[in-house]
Design brief:
The complex is a heterodimer of chains A (about 210) and B (about 600). Chain A is an alpha/beta fold. In chain A, about 35% of the residues lie in helices and about 20% in strands. The termini of chain A are far apart. Classes of the chains: A alpha/beta (about 210), B mainly alpha (about 600).
């Protein structure tokens, strides 16, 4: 059933302001890097088609604003996410410290079926820069403490590890989606939630 | 170019405190050197960089003259001249924007804000890090802000920081820097700061950033309702594709369209916004949606959002398009904002109410489940108690049964005993009457009353008495045997004496023999002729002794009280005395 339909994976990128969320997304989707990105206000997304295990999937990558107060604006995009990418700047310790709150906030707002099994991927970005503040070991320890989150060290600027990281993200998202699909398939009669029941013209209610 | 800007200001004779002579006006110097044209005009997938677009300062003589006239009048009257609105809607000439924006915002009247700026920039802000991170990301395509540590970035940092100190409630919010940068492209820091403060406070833009974006959500709701009102088909299309206003319009509103659109359009929007206020947000948004309605109706969710991100800003690149859009925007009447606001508040209250109710229900549910649990525990206890009581009741039942059986038994026994008692009583009564009628018996009774054994009828005393009597009997028997032995001896002696006597008799004279024979005959007439005759020395008490033995012989047969009583009459007084002493001894012990 799922194979004939277009598989869409929804991925959310979270992390403090200026850790490189937009840059990572653009490096992966457009293979470009520029210093001229503007601060993201609200949320943006890019899509990319890719093949995972001989299966073509479309990844919808949502890029969010990093300032803490914008979290409430991002919430609307969290629901239905298949994977959450947490990003920190390896040269900025504070961005590493915020990871817990980003993760917790996501789990609260997205309220996935099984919060403990929801796939996260951690990216330590800007490894091309010096001096380094957060060691790989420290980041890996954090990942282990969070039910073994996959960890990648990336440089959006140099395109380092970005492809591999997003492939892992896609695989985790797909696994998550399959597990949810399996869950749904346990019920013989699916209830389709489409808009067909809506009145065809909205004019009736506004006059 | 630069001199013409200065000339314009001088021409209009605006008495503004500005440092434009010290700071090269960026809008004039750098706009021509924006991102390469080919990139700006490419229709690729790349979104337009923020802060791009040509803004020509070219302006026709006519327009300049009308502006000069209007501004002159404005100066003298202090009130907005009638022609001003029309002129602003057509777009403020780039060369005049700095001054016109300040006047529209009413900056001259608030000169003290400008004074305070110098103090504010010296103060520390807790938003410094956030601001610093955003500075390089604000209008990065614009020459004026391109350079790290350059004049543009430094001014932007200072203005943003000063504002975060000035308005501690909002502090710094992402989006503000775009607004500040737009202003900085037209005026020096102090003025830019003043206009920013006016925009935030007087034009109520700061409400958008406050309280978890509550006001922003109100604006987005209002936009949604306006879309429903003005763009029915598109609204339905968006609804069916789950495209919500916050997905494309939050950035528009939070930055006053500055972050994504080409500068010419951005500046023109600011012109109109400063002229007429918040309604402009909705007018411009609706104009954009109307303008590209056909395109949007063809697209799905992803397509729509990508269109807003990439295609729409690119469509606004030409001055013509911008002018058209603004004209369209100004023609749109947004009347029902107040109503929609009330609806939003009602909706929010309903949601809150619902949430409250839900939480109340949840609480009640919890209470109920707690009570349910308590009830269950109590029911368990009750069933335990029931079991216990049942057992007790069963026990009591069996007890009762046995008891009643026993009672019945006792009743029967009692009945029997009663009957017996009655018969005994009757018998006794009978006996009594018989006794009373018999004189002998009455006497006997009287005598007997003194007899303790009879009176008390004590069987123990009787038995004792029997034992004593038996003992006495044994002793008596012994005495009898001894007596018989002695008797035998005496008989022997008698024989010997008889033989002696025979021999003597033979020798005796005949008379003597005759005398002796007569004596014998006499003696044989008695019980113990030999004894009496030959043993004259024996005690005199013999008759009593014989009778006593006779009595004992009779006693060895089974005892009967009357016999004992009979026996007692003749033989027992001394023994009774002894038995008395015995019992008294016993009781003493």
């Amino acid at each position: 059933m799922a194979s004939r339909k277009k598989t869409l994976l929804k991925v959310i990128i979270l992390g403090d302001s200026s850790v490189g969320k937009t840059s990572l997304m653009n490096q992966y989707v457009n293979r470009k890097f520029t210093n001229q990105y503007k601060a993201t206000i609200g949320a943006d997304f890019l899509t990319k088609e890719l093949t995972v295990d001989d299966r073509t999937v479309t990844m919808q990558i949502w890029d969010t604003a990093g300032q803490e107060r914008f979290q409430s604006l991002g919430v609307a995009f969290y629901r239905g996410a298949d994977c959450c990418v947490l990003v920190f700047d390896v040269t900025a310790p504070n961005t590493f410290k915020s990871l817990d709150s980003w993760r917790d906030e996501f789990l609260i707002q997205a309220s996935p079926r099984e919060p403990e099994n929801f796939p996260f991927v951690l990216l330590g970005n800007k490894v091309d820069l010096e001096p380094r503040a957060i060691s790989s070991k420290r980041a890996q320890q954090w990942c282990q403490s969070k039910n073994n989150i996959p960890y990648f060290e990336t440089s959006a600027k140099e395109g380092l590890n970005v492809e591999q990281a997003f492939m892992a993200i896609a695989k985790n998202a797909l696994a998550q989606q399959n597990s949810t699909v399996d869950l749904y398939n346990e019920f013989p009669d699916q209830i389709k939630l489409t808009n067909t029941q809506k009145p065809s013209g909205g004019s009736g209610c506004c006059q | 170019m630069e001199s013409s800007g200065e000339l314009d200001r001088n021409l209009l004779n605006l008495n503004l405190k500005n440092f434009s002579s010290l700071i090269p006006s960026p809008s004039i110097t750098s706009i021509d050197t924006l991102t390469p044209k080919e990139e700006y005009y490419s229709d690729g997938d790349e979104p337009l960089l923020s802060g791009t677009g040509l803004v020509s300062k070219d302006c026709s003589e006519d327009v300049l003259e009308s502006w000069a006239e209007v501004l002159g009048r404005w100066k003298s009257t202090k009130q907005r001249p009638r022609q001003l609105a029309g002129l602003v809607r057509l777009g403020v000439p780039e060369a005049l924007r700095g001054e016109v924006w300040q006047r529209l915002a009413g900056v001259e009247e608030g000169a003290e804000i400008m004074e305070s700026y110098r103090v504010l920039i010296t103060k520390e802000s807790n938003c410094e890090n956030v601001i610093q991170r955003d500075i390089a990301r604000t209008f990065p395509a614009h020459d004026f802000f391109k350079e790290a540590g350059g004049l543009g970035q430094d001014s932007l940092y200072r203005v943003s920081k000063a504002y975060s100190v000035y308005d501690s409630e909002v502090g710094y919010c992402q989006g503000l820097s775009f607004l500040a940068a737009t202003l900085l492209l037209h005026m020096p820091e102090e003025q830019a700061f003043c206009v920013l403060v006016k925009l935030m406070y007087d034009y109520r833009l700061r409400d958008l950033y406050k309280d978890g974006f509550d006001n922003l959500y109100l604006r987005l709701y209002q936009l949604n309702r306006l879309m429903e009102e003005h763009l029915d088909a598109l609204w339905t299309h968006f609804e069916s594709h789950h495209v919500e206003t916050h997905m494309f319009a939050s950035q528009w509103f939070l930055t006053l369209f500055t972050a994504r659109f080409p500068l010419y359009f951005v500046f023109h929007i600011i012109d109109v916004f400063l002229l007429q206020g918040v309604d402009t947000l909705f007018q411009v948004a609706l104009a954009l949606l109307m303008w590209c309605k056909k395109d949007l109706l063809q697209l799905d969710f992803e397509g729509i959002l990508k269109y807003f991100r990439v295609s729409l800003p690119k469509k606004c690149r030409s001055e013509e398009a911008a002018k058209q859009l603004i004209k369209l925007a100004c023609s749109i009447k947004v009347k029902k904002l107040k109503k929609y606001e009330a609806d939003f508040i009602a909706l929010k209250e309903a949601v809150e109410h619902k949430e409250n109710e839900a939480s109340e229900v949840e609480q009640l549910r919890m209470t109920v489940s707690r009570y349910e649990e308590e009830r269950k525990l109590m029911m368990d206890e009750i069933s335990q108690l029931k079991d216990m009581l049942k057992r007790e009741v069963n026990q009591a039942d069996t007890d009762k049964k046995t008891n009643s059986a026993m009672i019945n038994d006792y009743k029967l026994i009692r009945q029997r005993l009663d009957a017996q008692l009655r018969t005994v009583k009757a018998e006794l009564e009978d006996i009594k009457t018989k006794i009373t009628s018999c004189e002998k018996c009455t006497e006997f009774l009287k005598k007997d009353e003194k007899d303790p054994l009879r009176g008390s009828g004590d069987p123990i005393k009787g038995e004792e008495r029997i034992r004593e009597l038996e003992l006495e009997l044994a002793q008596t028997k012994l005495a009898l045997v001894e007596a018989e032995c002695r008797n035998q001896n005496l008989t022997h002696q008698l024989r010997a004496a008889e033989i002696e006597l025979q021999t003597a008799k033979n020798s005796w004279p005949p008379w003597l023999s005759k005398t002796l024979t007569s004596i014998k005959e006499v003696a044989n007439k008695k019980d113990f002729p030999n004894f009496n005759v030959s043993q004259p020395g024996l005690p005199n008490a013999t008759p009593t002794f014989v009778s006593h033995i006779n009595a004992v012989r009779r006693e060895s047969v089974p005892i009967r009280t009357d016999r004992i009583a009979e026996n007692r009459r003749d033989s027992a007084p001394s023994v009774i005395k002894d038995s008395h002493s015995c019992t008294s001894l016993k009781t003493q012990h």
